[in-house]
Structure formats: structure tokens, C-alpha cells
């Protein structure tokens, strides 16, 4: 893991919490495909264990929880794959929890068909609607998608790119390595989490944790912003945290107004939600509106392999110093220029090369802050400290001369005695 872009001269976009008055909306998506009949969890079938775990979780939910349930692979057991891969239904609509209705609907489920995870995720997102509230999908499955396309990982990236505050958490029942990788990809793409369960107790605990987390109102969310391909029409941003999407090897432009005596501090993090070639990097650069580079910050190692970050600092005092130097060289008066608000262009670039061809950009989080500038000497060098060093040097010289005289006197006296 943001406000709309504004044109030149308009008020800057602000990071704000979307849908603060709306309660979170949650949908559980349960795999009821044929593989759920396997009896390898505490000697019972996966579906039997899942039903009991769901029942316990539903009993513990507050009545105000906005919850829905969708299933996949639950109704068609035939061999026509085209029909089987459309097999997903919402059995409980989003709304306050009715424990009896929910448990009765779950109790009738039988392992039946294929595993159309990608389609189920798309339809679950539609079930949750776009009311401005935070939305969360909890996917429980024992295997990977058997109906690609659509690829569920690409579906997750597309949902995240819509900027509608949708998170997908995934839970694997006795998952193999291929299933684990797919579920991790889905959750990572949307800012969710992955967990595995190999017993009824683990399954109950994991589902309860995910539903509790989903039903808890989130902290202030970053605002969504869309960077442009040039500085001229880039969105003007106020201090805050913003999210965007950036394609492979793309450049995104944003603008920030920096007042005199202010320092701009900016950082960017790009989430690697897909496999990329090893020769990659992230660049955050600040320039003037006419393209003159001010400062750049290359990617900095954070010990993580799924996120690359870069940061920079730039003070409006540096602009004053440049203006003063130019004025002295041209013998001109630039007092007005030195006190004028400076519009700085921030450029986010990446040099990624992806093994996966996709039009969906990678998640970008941009943080902007404006603080009081720390003033530096007008010119490089020792500045006012030079006088102090000169006094120390003279004192040292006098002390050395005095010590020499005392030593010579002491030696001469010692020889005479």
C-alpha cells in the first residue's frame, strides 16, 4: 500500500480519509470446489472443517458488521468447463449479520466444481459496491484457480488500480507451493495478508482474525492521485501521503508549491507486486517547471525485497542562493524572485523490466512534507567559525613560545646546580 489531481493555479490536493462515516464492508469468499471434499484436516473433509469454522466466526460477529458471503464451485459438477468457470454465487448479500441465515446457507454447501477465483474476486468487488467505504474481501481456498483467464493475480492488480480502497486477504487450506504463491500474489497486490491453516483451530483463528481486522475502521488512508507525463499539467499536491500506479519504465510528474524559508521533504515507495528483472531501480527527482534539475534521490536499501524507496530534501533557500549568484553575475536585482513561491516538479521514475506483460501499474506511495528550512551560511567554508579558529591558533603559538622559555630556564638552572 488519495485526492484528485488539480490543474495549475487550483488549490492543491489534500490527503484525506475517504468514507470516514461509512462502516467497512466485508465479503467472505469460500471455495466449494471438488477438492474441498479431501479428508486431510484432522481426519475430516476440508469443507466440514470450514463450515464449523465459519459457524463459530458468524456467532461471534457483532450484529452491526456489514458482511456478505460468496461461494465458488458450489453448484455445477459437469464437465463443460465454460459453464463450470462461471460457477460463483453470492449466497448472503452485504448487510448486518443474520447469524441464523448465514449458518443455514453455509450448512447446505457441498464440494462440487471448478475453482474460478478470478471471476469470484471480480464479482465480490461488485457485491461490495463503491460507496466510498473501505471494502475487504476474505478469500478462503484450498487450491489455485482452475479457470484462468482471468488470472486472479491480474484481477487483484486491476482492482487495486481502481483506487477504491479494496483489500483482499487470502487464507489457504493446506496449500501447496503453487497455491501459496498465487494467494500471496493476490493479497500483496491489494495490500492484504496471506495466512495458511492446517487444522480446524488454525482455520477458526485465522478467519476470526481476518474478519475482525476487516470490520475495524482503518486509520486515515492515503489520498489517490494521478500523476501525469509532464510537469505542465501535473497535479499540485499539498503535504500528505498519496497513492498512484506507475507502469514499467514510466515517469510520473507531480507539483509542489514551496514557500520562501521552507524545505521540501519527499519520499516515494514502489511496491514490487510482480516478478521483475534484477536490473531495477527507483528514482525520485525534483526540478523547476522549466526542467532544471534541483536534486535527486536514488533508491535506498531498506532490507526488503518487495518495496523500493527513494527520498530527497530541497530548501527554498537554495533557490535564493542560486538567484543571488545569478544576480551578482548579471549585476541585476532579483529580490522579488528570491521571495516568490517556487513550484517544484517531482518526478518518480523506475527502471524495472517485468517478466509479466501487464498494463496495470505498480503501487506507488508518495509522501510530501514542508517544514521550516534550516538556514546555512551564505557561502561555503568556515564562515563565522574562522575567527574562533584564528584565536585558538594564536593562543597555541603563544603557549608554545612560553613553554619553550620556561623549559630553557629550567634546563639552564639544573645544569648550574
TrEMBL record:
Q: Which keywords are on file for this protein? A: Membrane, Transmembrane, Transmembrane helix
> Is NAD found in the keyword set?
no
Q: Which Pfam families match?
A: VWA_2
Q: Which residues cross the membrane?
A: 386-411
Q: Does the keyword section mention Signal?
A: no
Matches recorded under InterPro entries: CLCR (IPR051266), VWF_A (IPR002035), vWFA_dom_sf (IPR036465)
Residue ranges of the VWFA domain?
25-210
| Record-linked PANTHER family | CALCIUM-ACTIVATED CHLORIDE CHANNEL REGULATOR, EXPRESSED PROTEIN
Protein name in the entry? VWFA domain-containing protein
Amino acid at each position: 500500500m488519495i485526492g484528485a489531481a488539480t490543474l495549475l493555479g487550483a488549490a492543491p490536493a489534500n490527503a484525506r480519509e475517504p468514507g470516514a462515516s461509512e462502516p467497512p464492508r466485508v465479503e467472505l469468499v469460500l471455495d466449494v470446489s471438488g477438492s474441498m471434499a479431501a479428508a486431510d484436516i484432522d481426519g475430516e473433509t476440508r469443507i466440514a472443517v470450514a463450515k464449523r469454522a465459519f459457524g463459530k466466526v458468524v456467532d461471534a460477529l457483532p450484529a452491526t458488521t456489514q458482511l456478505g458471503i460468496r461461494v465458488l464451485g458450489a453448484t455445477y459438477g459437469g464437465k463443460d468447463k465454460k459453464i463450470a468457470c462461471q460457477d460463483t454465487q453470492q449466497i448472503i448479500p452485504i448487510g448486518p449479520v443474520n447469524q441464523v441465515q448465514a449458518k443455514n446457507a453455509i450448512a447446505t454447501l457441498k464440494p462440487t466444481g471448478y475453482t474460478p477465483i478470478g471471476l469470484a474476486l471480480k464479482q465480490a468487488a461488485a457485491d461490495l459496491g463503491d460507496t466510498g467505504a473501505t471494502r475487504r474481501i476474505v478469500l478462503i481456498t484450498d487450491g489455485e484457480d482452475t479457470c484462468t483467464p482471468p488470472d486472479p493475480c491480474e484481477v487483484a492488480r486491476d482492482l487495486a488500480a481502481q483506487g477504491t480502497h479494496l483489500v483482499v486477504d487470502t487464507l489457504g487450506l493446506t496449500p501447496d507451493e503453487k497455491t501459496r504463491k498465487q494467494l500471496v500474489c493476490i493479497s500483496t497486490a491489494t495490500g492484504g495478508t496471506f495466512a495458511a491453516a492446517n487444522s480446524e483451530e488454525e482455520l477458526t483463528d485465522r478467519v476470526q482474525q481476518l474478519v475482525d481486522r476487516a470490520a475495524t475502521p482503518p486509520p486515515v488512508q492515503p489520498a489517490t492521485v494521478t500523476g501525469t507525463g509532464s510537469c505542465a499539467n501535473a497535479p499540485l499536491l499539498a503535504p500528505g501521503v498519496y497513492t498512484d500506479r506507475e507502469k514499467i519504465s514510466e515517469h510520473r510528474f507531480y507539483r509542489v508549491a514551496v514557500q520562501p524559508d521552507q524545505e521540501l521533504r519527499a519520499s516515494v515507495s514502489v511496491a514490487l507486486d510482480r516478478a521483475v528483472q534484477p536490473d531495477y531501480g527507483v528514482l525520485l527527482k525534483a526540478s523547476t517547471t522549466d526542467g532544471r534539475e534541483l536534486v535527486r534521490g536514488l533508491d535506498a536499501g531498506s532490507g526488503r525485497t518487495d518495496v523500493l524507496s527513494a527520498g530527497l530534501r530541497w530548501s527554498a533557500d537554495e533557490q535564493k542562493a542560486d538567484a543571488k549568484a545569478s544576480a551578482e553575475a548579471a549585476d541585476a536585482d532579483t529580490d522579488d524572485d528570491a521571495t516568490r513561491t517556487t513550484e517544484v516538479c517531482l518526478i518518480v521514475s523506475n527502471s524495472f523490466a517485468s517478466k509479466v506483460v501487464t498494463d496495470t501499474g505498480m503501487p506507488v506511495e508518495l509522501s510530501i512534507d514542508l517544514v521550516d528550512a534550516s538556514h546555512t551560511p551564505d557561502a561555503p567554508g568556515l564562515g563565522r567559525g574562522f575567527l574562533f579558529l584564528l584565536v585558538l591558533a594564536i593562543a597555541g603559538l603563544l603557549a608554545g613560545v612560553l613553554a619553550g622559555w620556561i623549559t630553557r630556564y629550567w634546563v639552564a638552572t639544573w645544569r648550574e646546580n
